[in-house]
Amino acid sequence: MLNRASFIELSARKRAQLLLDDGTFREILGPFDDIESPWLEPQGITPQSDDGMVVAKGSIDGKPSVVVAIEGSFQGGSMGEVSGAKMACAIELAAEDNRQGKETQVVLSLETGGVRLQEANLGLAAIADIHAAIVDARRYVPVIGIITGIVGCFGGMSIAAGLCSKLIVTREARLGLNGPQVIEQEAGIDEYDSRNRPFIWSMTGGEVRAATGFADKFVNDSQAEVQAAVKTLINEGVPALNRSDRYDEYLHTFAQYDGQQIDAETAQQLFK
User: Fold this and answer.
1) CB 145 within 8 A of CB 166
2) Could you read off the pLDDT of 7-32 as tens digits, one per residue?
3) pTM, to two decimals
């Protein structure tokens, strides 16, 4: 019977340790290297010595791997210059290893609200680098994304999730380009009530994202189930067609919609 110990409750560092084979975890640019954002302290924000980004090397199922995990409890998992560079460079180096014949798997734990507003364009540039790195690396190995909770995955990093070869989600996960509060602020409460949690999860929750084909594995909040899903998707190899390559199909689907306010049932009918 699978162990139901919570994956969501783990810190980013514990997630990376769990995903890598026992005894193989080796952190790169960890907290004792003091690589932190120079932009937070002048704004009265206490920086974190790893800038909320954990990069670890080791193996998964015996295969050389890099795991990059975002710490959702630090600044809502937001992406700044340093944290974004750590993720982008880790993926870029994995792609280069693959080009040199050293097959290296890539797994991303995505708990992020998107760009860190305090770092603005620096964060956006880093996210663009992450997008480019994922597209490069996924030519060689499947880039596996994991969204479990409690932050979800929003903003520019939701595009990173969409670029992943395969995506793992839980019922507690959320995935969307804009967060509920942003939509409500810009379009009004009649369009999107950020306090209506059942509605939010019915539109952007992990279960509906899996049901409509925007995620590949729907798992319980279980350390063992997440581990097993990662190994399964790695062993499936590079998909014949990435989700982001199906843009013509998605554009055709959107063209069939009449533009009225959408609900969960309509969304599922459109994309099922």
Assistant:
1) yes
2) 999 999 999 999 999 999 999 999 99
3) 0.93
User: Does residue 150 have a cis bond before it (omega within 30 degrees)?
Assistant: yes
pLDDT tens string 145-177:
999 988 999 999 999 999 999 999 999 999 999
| Helix extents (H) in the chain | 12-19, 81-99, 120-137, 156-163, 180-187, 197-204, 206-211, 223-236, 247-255, 264-271
Q: What whole-number distance in Å separates Cα of residue 174 and Cα of residue 176?
A: 7
Beta strand 53-60 with 63-70: parallel, antiparallel or unpaired? Answer: antiparallel
Tokens 């479990």 label which residue?
A: 148
Question: In a 3-state reduction of DSSP, which class is residue 210?
Answer: helix
| Residue of 261 and 211 predicted with greater confidence | 211
Q: How many whole angstroms separate alpha carbon 94 and alpha carbon 88?
A: 10
Q: Give CATH for domain 12-271.
A: 3.90.226.10
Chain segment 169-203, per-residue pLDDT in tens: 999 999 999 888 888 888 888 888 889 888 889 98
Amino acid at 210: A
Give the CA count within 13 Å in the CB-facing half-sphere of 185.
5
From 109, 17, 12, select the one nearest 60 (Cα to Cα): 17
Domain boundaries, the chain: 12-271
For residue 249, give Cα distances in angstroms to 131, 244, 262, 270: 21, 10, 19, 11
